[in-house]
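User: Hey, my collaborator sent me this sequence without any context and asked if I could get a structure. I don't really work with proteins. Can you help?
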Amino acid sequence: MVKIFVPKEVRDLERRVAINPESVKKFIKEGFSVSVERGAGRHAGISDEAFEAAGAKIVEDPEKGYAAAEMVLKVQAPALNPDLKKHEVDLLPEGSTLFCSLVPQNEIETIQKLLKRKISCFSTNLIPRITIAQKMDTLSSQASLAGYKAVIMAAHSLGKYFPLLMTAAGTITPAKVVILGAGVAGLQAIATARRLGANVEAYDVRPVVKEQVESLGAKFIDIPVEENLEDKGGYAKEQSEAFLKRQREIIGNHLAQADVAITTALIPGRPAPLLITSEMVERMPLGSVIVDMAVEQGGNCELSEPGKTVEKKGVTLIGELNIPATMPIHASQLFSRNLLNLVTHLMVDGAFKIDLEEPITDGALLTYQGTYRHEQTKDLIEKGAAS
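Assistant: No problem. I've predicted the 3D structure and written it out in structure-token form, which is a compact way to encode the shape of the chain:
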């Protein structure tokens, strides 16, 4: 029987929990035992009593919870526990298994600690974009929530209606929303803005998403390309300077007429691409709003500030960090289901097993028994050590 421990998240702004009572029941049915730190689900609307009713043991002392665990489930990557004054990796038993959403380029020191303690760490951020992995994909489930919430935040900050309204005092024209990036977050943002009645335009460097954008009722901003801008994993990749110049010129013209811009563009393992320059912000109408969803990785807007809502050049710039955590109830529910699906997928003959040849494991296993399994992360750390 594999012993699972789910600690309370320790990072600032994190209100999610990695498991919910529904998943506790299913883990136990699969032969696992589950312990949860007291208060871990409070912000996600889950009481300790609800966890206990599902069959989980409530642990008062997280240090003891870690010490007894063979597998630890977390939302965020390990960090310093401010109450214990110890890093969470140092609490993990040597040779144990960790599941969390770890972004390698942001967690070099943590990865080195994982290596030293021979922790087998699965990063849900590295789950390959293949059909069988969709139900395990925490990036997609959380991005969908973030795309929805970004539009709500924009609507809250915008000093006008989103929809077309015919009133006794005259006609209210609909807001114009421009969404940059049409991945999961961008498509959810499009759908939400359309449901609120806005006129929506969207852009993505991958022409293949044009049909998806238009199926949601938005207009696709078409910028002719002569190069392949999609990597083999289905993500956007870095572009040439000539293309970027043309891209900014055309997007700038659309932003000059926009009430709201929402940016969602990310490149795995790289800083977020710059899509909105200071000059482009200056051309936007006074009172317009930009929500920069990529602010945690450098931002798509030159003027956005991480964790702050600021006004610059007459435009409100929202740099909210960790948007999914602002919706912790459904975010935790979806994250928990993703982890349950991932862990049970890796079971062989009723037992959890790390099979290095299995496709999901091959993509998501970051470290294994003191060695790197993710070559890009290995290169990243070795280059950093050499510089």
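In plain terms: The radius of gyration is 22 Å. You can pass these tokens on to your collaborator as they are.
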